[in-house]
Protein: DUF3416
Organism: uncultured Nitrobacter sp
Amino acid sequence: AAASERPLAASFIPPKPGRYVFAIEAWTDQYATWKRDFLLKRDAGLDVTLEAEEGRRLLETALERFKDRITTEGNGFDSIQDPAILLSDAATEVASTLDHPDLTRSAAYPLVADRA
């Protein structure tokens, strides 16, 4: 089944007994989706020029929030022309700050934890 069709599961353990309220949030990870598609096309030998440009734009959007810090740290984002930079762990971390325009939130659910 496609990733979007697979049910997801998660769990958490309340830190101590008591009453809690939780909600479930979901969104599309724009960077992870771009990276997956980029790698699939690149590995299939297809031209990824447009995909690389899309990745650069995603990172540039995320970098705007960290421009001063990134430049002073000198960690390679001054020029995002190399696809290796677009695929790096640092790029993944920076891209995690992108907005989530398709954020969906469930109703709030009550939870009572009576044991630690």
About this structure: The chain has a mean pLDDT of 81.
